[in-house]
């Protein structure tokens, strides 16, 4: 005959306050899939507009480092720029935007300073998120006038 194993007795505190009821223990559901994660809330405040303008980014710390690209969309506080090269994030750049004018007119170039907040590779193109920090000359006034002018198509929330 096999000997029975005995477990050592464990002392428990059985004192319960009079006004508390029994404690219910919820059992974990058996093998359920995790619920889908909702999309992150939109953090952008300003309306974005579709704009495909030539853009140049020149490193503030090293003026010799330059990147060329095209804006995908723009707002009063930043832009999404497509570029063939990886642009290091968390660095500040002088940004030059070439805004097309009516046929035959020289494009308008505005200069500002911004910070690259993210760089993501998407379909063999780097998507760069830039926050504008400082406008040079009348760049802020010009940009606001263009955005308010009604000629650019607003970017819907599903587009990127």
Determine and state the CATH class of the domain at 49-148. Answer: Mainly Beta
Secondary-structure element string? EEEEEEEH
Q: Level of helix content? A: under 10%
Distance between the termini: 74 Å
Question: Structural class given helices, strands, pairing?
Answer: mainly beta
How can the largest sheet be summarized?
A: 6 strands, antiparallel, barrel
The counted number of beta strands is: 7
Short descriptors:
160 residues; mainly beta; Thrombin, subunit H; 6% helix; globular
Describe the structure in your own words.
This protein has one helix at residues 139-148, and strands at 49-50, 54-59, 66-75, 78-83, 92-99, 108-122, 125-135. The protein is mostly beta strands. The chain has a domain at 49-148: Thrombin, subunit H, CATH 2.40.10. The chain has a six-stranded antiparallel beta barrel with strand order 2-3-4-7-6-5. The longest helix has 10 residues, at 139-148. The model is unreliable at 5-18 (pLDDT under 50).
Draw up the topology in text:
Layout: E1 49-50, E2 54-59, E3 66-75, E4 78-83, E5 92-99, E6 108-122, E7 125-135, H1 139-148
Antiparallel strand pairs: 1-3, 2-3, 2-5, 3-4, 4-7, 5-6, 6-7
Compact overview of the structure:
The protein has 160 residues and is mainly β.
């Amino acid at each position: 005959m096999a000997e029975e194993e005995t477990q050592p007795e464990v002392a428990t505190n059985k004192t319960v306050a009079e006004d508390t009821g029994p404690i219910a223990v919820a059992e974990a559901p058996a093998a359920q899939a995790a619920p889908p994660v909702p999309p992150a809330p939109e953090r952008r405040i300003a309306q974005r507009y579709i704009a495909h303008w030539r853009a140049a980014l020149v490193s503030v710390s090293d003026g010799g480092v330059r990147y060329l690209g095209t804006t995908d969309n723009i707002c009063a506080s930043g832009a999404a720029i497509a570029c063939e090269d990886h642009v290091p994030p968390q660095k500040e750049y002088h940004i030059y935007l070439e805004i097309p004018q009516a046929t035959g007119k020289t494009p308008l170039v505005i200069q500002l300073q911004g910070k690259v907040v993210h760089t993501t590779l998407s379909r063999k193109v780097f998507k760069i998120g830039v926050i504008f920090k400082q406008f040079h000359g009348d760049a802020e006034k010009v940009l606001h006038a263009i955005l308010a002018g009604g000629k650019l198509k607003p970017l819907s929330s599903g587009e990127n």
